[in-house]
Design brief:
This protein has 270 residues and is of the alpha/beta class. The protein has two domains: 169 residues, P-loop containing nucleotide triphosphate hydrolases (Rossmann fold, 3-Layer(aba) Sandwich); 78 residues. The protein has ten helices and six strands, in the order βααββαβαβαβααααα. A six-stranded mixed sheet has the order 2-3-1-4-5-6, sandwiched between helices. It is elongated and about 70 Å long. The two termini are 23 Å apart. The structure holds guanosine-3'-monophosphate-5'-diphosphate and magnesium ion. Magnesium ion binds next to helix 1.
């Protein structure tokens, strides 16, 4: 049987760079304005076949169209949650939209999703006479992020499929070009490894020193009766709730919930 996996990706970039049009072209193979008005920040699905270490793999991409207005920071952060990769889009007729990827979007994504693979789309390449971003400039910027770029057109369809497919492959491999490490999505964690991830996650995110964070962990393990050497799933879930409670004093509700979700993810990987 063919192996199947589902991955979430998102498209991000300033207003009007063509994110919605690109998704529409890729998923439905059309380009018109009616869809643009109705899709909003919805998610669409697209199945594709990719090669996974020499074996065919059926990959379903859940494609998120991220709202382009920078003021919607919380909505964006929520959308970035759990994303495995991103297409970062600029408009070739507006150089400021490329600057904005570096000064805002990539950073915002990585703060929530970590270092996930990205592929640049320099869109509206059909508007040849109006293009104000050069190939050299694109090379320079994308090199800094160890990423590929494609000059695309949602209007003609040029390179649209290639860009999505390239990201799909990277997402499956679970690595960025700059990283040697292989993070296989399917790797199972032992209970102790899950616990280890929860503890280190807490120590990283709790805004006080690591010693203090560890003392909080020890105390809360005692409270829920968790055995460090043989942690049960139930006790880890209880611990996660206790840690969220402690964090509520120093972090925002958004951060507390985000941490809780990320920690529970370690348990689902068991
Ligand atoms: P967004 O989702 O990033 O905000 P949209 O961008 O997909 O809504 O596109 C913004 C405008 O750019 C739309 O025009 C759309 O038709 C146009 N557009 C998108 N991609 C391309 C492209 O590759 N080539 C050209 N020539 N135009 C493109 P309107 O006029 O509806 O604002
Ligand atoms: Mg849009």
């Amino acid at each position: 049987m063919q192996k199947k996996i589902i991955k979430k990706i998102c498209l991000l970039g300033d207003n009007s760079v063509g994110k919605t049009s690109l998704i529409k072209k890729y998923v439905f193979d059309t380009f018109d304005d009616k869809y643009i008005a109705t899709i909003g920040t919805k998610t669409v699905k697209k199945e594709l076949n990719v090669d996974y270490f020499g074996k065919p793999l059926n990959l379903t991409l859940m494609i998120w169209d991220i709202i382009g207005q920078k003021e919607y920071r919380n909505l964006q952060n929520m959308s970035f949650e759990g994303t495995s990769g991103a297409l970062v889009v600029c408009d070739m007729t507006r150089p400021e939209t490329l600057e904005s990827l570096e000064s805002y979007w990539i950073d915002a994504l990585q703060k929530v999703a970590g270092t996930v693979p990205i592929v640049f789309m320099a869109n509206k390449c059909d508007l040849v006479d109006e293009a104000r971003i050069t190939r050299d400039r694109l090379m320079e910027v994308t090199k800094r992020h160890s990423a590929n770029f494609f000059m695309t057109s949602a209007k003609t369809g040029e390179n649209v499929e290639s860009a999505f497919k390239t990201l799909g492959k990277k997402v499956v491999a679970g690595k960025t070009d700059g990283m040697v490490e292989m993070k296989t999505a399917e790797k199972k964690l032992s209970p102790v490894e899950a616990m280890d991830n929860i503890v280190s996650h807490f120590c990283e995110h709790f805004k006080q020193d690591t010693d203090y964070a560890m003392s909080v962990i020890r105390k809360q393990c005692e409270v829920v009766g968790l055995d460090i050497n043989n942690p049960s799933k139930q006790s880890m879930l209880q611990l996660i709730e206790k840690l969220a409670f402690v964090e509520a004093d120093v972090l925002s509700t958004f951060e507390v919930n985000k941490n809780r979700i990320e920690r529970k993810n370690f348990i689902t990987k068991m």
